Amino acid sequence: MQLTQPMVSIIVPVYKVERYLEQCLVSIVHQSYRNLEILLVDDGSPDNCPQLCDMWAQRDARIHVIHKKNGGLSDARNAGLCQAHGDLVAFVDSDDWIALDMIEKMTDAMLRNQADMVICQYVVAYEDGRFEKRAPENGPVEVLNRQQALSELLIDGRLTNHVWRKLYWRNKMPKDVFPKGRNFEDIYVMPELFAPCKKFVYITDPLYFYRCNENGIVQSAKIKDLRDCLAAQEHSGEVIADICPSLAQQVEMCSVWKTVGLWMDSVFALDSAQEKCSFQEQLNEKLKHAKLQDVKILGKRKQLALLFIQHFPALARGYSKVLGKDDSFLSDFKKLLRLVRHNLRLKKEFKREIPPKFVVLCTPTYGNLGDQALLKGEQRFIEKYFPDYKSILISLDDSRCVKWLKNVISSNDIIALQAGGNIGTLYLGIHNAQESAMQVFAHKKLMIFPQTFYYSTDTEGRKVLEKTRTLYDAFETLKVFVRDPASERFVRENLPNTDVTLMPDMVLMNRPQVSHRKRKGVLVCLRGDAEATLPIAERDRLLTMVETRFSKIRQIDTHVYYTPKDDTEVQTLLNQNWTQMAESELVITDRLHGMIFALLTGTPCVTVLSKSPKVEGVYNEWLKGNKMIKIIHSLDDFPQAVEEVLSHHDEPLNLEKADAGFDEMAQEIKKMWKVN
To answer: Strand runs (DSSP E) across 166-241, as ranges?
Structure first.
């Protein structure tokens, strides 16, 4: 009989993660799927983790704590598996976290497809606040058979050799499946977990957030680590070949591919030259009979490395050092070639007899949908107010190669900098790219679409601000538009020679066409990046209050964690985001554009005020007449705010002040460039 609401056991090994544990647990206890058993396995952690585990167990009856002597990750997972009672099992590492609807989506996919295993997409969260979706995919679920899944596992591609981000049937898992006392235990065990499964479902939604330790094994490898990895890979290949003999040839090819990778990694190992040489000789023995024509999977880079390893080992070491472990040299070189080709096309476009141009510098090349919506708003602004102008977009990457522009720009061409919240020290890489592009036009006219200014008050912040002041003062004519009063005050006080005017956020130029189907549930859109300010305890409290009022909770973000390939994909992603909001009763967010997206789709929204003044500033200046939005300064006000915004869900959109602002901004630009 098909289960309709199976219990899911979530096993969390805990060891020396005091700093991250509560973020992990908040994401688990507030899952939209409620039929959970949460097993916290304290693996003899010497910090405050045991006490934290017990405290959370007292608060939530679904949590059970297993205290044991330290035995390593495999031993902890086995201990949790032995005491699990759920029909389904998921593993979450205690320094990671999961989306609020991960278990619901994965369980639904498991039951709907009658699958044996479900794998979701994941996001790498770096300590500096960056996020990266490992496989830039956006589409429906994919169903795979065993051979297809094992093939993916071999190349460690979309499915990867990670125990986490997967949902298993407990009855298909041996209780002591995880090998004790081994490194790279996930590589050892995954083929055995795949073996009893016939049907796999792959979800492209990023539901698991993996915290990347910059000081981990990959970054500071030793020869012992590389030997352990080699042993794990060899074991995995042998098991896969036994399970599915038709993959034997691919196993051999992948073995060569992975061995070449380990050889190149050994060049950077923190060991003596003698130890490196000994390990490389071991790998040479494995690679000496490999033929280039038989290992097409390697790609050109590793094929060349294999050739060098077989015939010129010394040259191979130099080759590895030049390229680097992360292929940064090669990827940067390829990117440079793309930039050169793209800029040649831009040059040709400028040379042709075309109408006057409206050039927008430093347009986003990343997956922040708020910034992408800003660009869409700018394009609509140009179409509406400057219909005789041809829009030319210069991306952040392209902006490094635009020195030629100053010689072909005519006096009628308008030059503008992309809108957003990127000026200052918060996103210094983007800020520096913007100022480099601006320098090209320092003796011409330039305008900046509505921005937010933020500079830290430390020594570094003051230094960056002084550089900005010098650059702005060098302009013949510079017009700066800002979107919030705090930024206006900042510019007037710190950049006194700069002409600044307060104008609406450019996203408000968008008018999404969404069908308002029957609304259901609440959509939570909370920051997890460098601007996140809501403490874990407050997030926990907020989600608890949401659960008391709404039965259906979904998680969304205005960031897709990868670079969309083209304008069509950007529009598709924006439409998907807006549709999700239009189908919700309520949006809860601390994001500026989460709030604006909700407004544009007619969705009631409670905004939890962050430390950034831009959220309240934009609201007070341009959106205050819309009663379906409410900003709260304290979570004590949350229940009343929810009732207030829900009572105004049918009120028409009021953007008269913003529209008047855009009219005024267009007139100022036309006056600046003497456009009729």
So the answer is: 166-169, 199-211
